[in-house]
Amino acid sequence: MTGIHVFLGPTLPREEAAALLDATWLPPVAQGDVLRLCAEKPKAIGIIDGFFESVPSVWHKEILYAIHAGIPVFGASSMGALRAAELYPFGMIGVGAIFEAFRDGRLEDDDEVAVVHGPAELGYTALSEAMVNIRRTLSDAVADRVLAMETAFRLEAIAKELPYRERGYGRMLRLAGDIGLPAAELSAFRTWLPQGRFDQKRDDAKSMLRVMARRFGQSQSKCQAHSRPSAAADAQAARFHFEHTILWDRALRDAAPLAA
Fold it and tell me: What's this model's pTM, rounded to 2 decimal places?
């Protein structure tokens, strides 16, 4: 085994991920998972997908604990992009357009990357569309002159107002028709969408895996030929004092006794 561990769920099929990086693939990250993994002294940790709402999300402090222990932690696409945007000053390595948008303050809401998905047995199949993907796809439709900019802005607003569990192109377009957006443009967009739809989350996830492969000397020449330049924040591990609070020491005992 390579000692590289990656938390992955609905963003990217595992077989596609495995073609880019030789790693141990783990389910979406939840609170305590990174802490427990530190006990195994991994070579690196990658975070793409993570649980939230019904399951406590990965704790910032457990990521800091890994970084303080000298374990490189990479993040992109979904939960990984959120945590990397918050923790890059402390050494977490963010990759991709979504990470950059959160880091720079162009995006702020967690629901931008949230999707509802199926169970592990079905490969965590995404059952809704991420807002970041809709934004990118609408931008491309404007660039391809499929939509006028004003129409794209109004479609974007419709999608943003939907609960993340209900977001999708079909629902967005039905609502757009109901309020009288130009029928010809909506029809053209429907026709263009199967080929024009862009999955920004998947693209960023692949970029992160390529960055990790290069960082750890894995040959990925056949994959790099089709990749765009990655927007990795190659931050050096920041020096910071890790505070061992009573709550943290209790978390160590409860979640990962060996990590202490």
Answer: 0.87
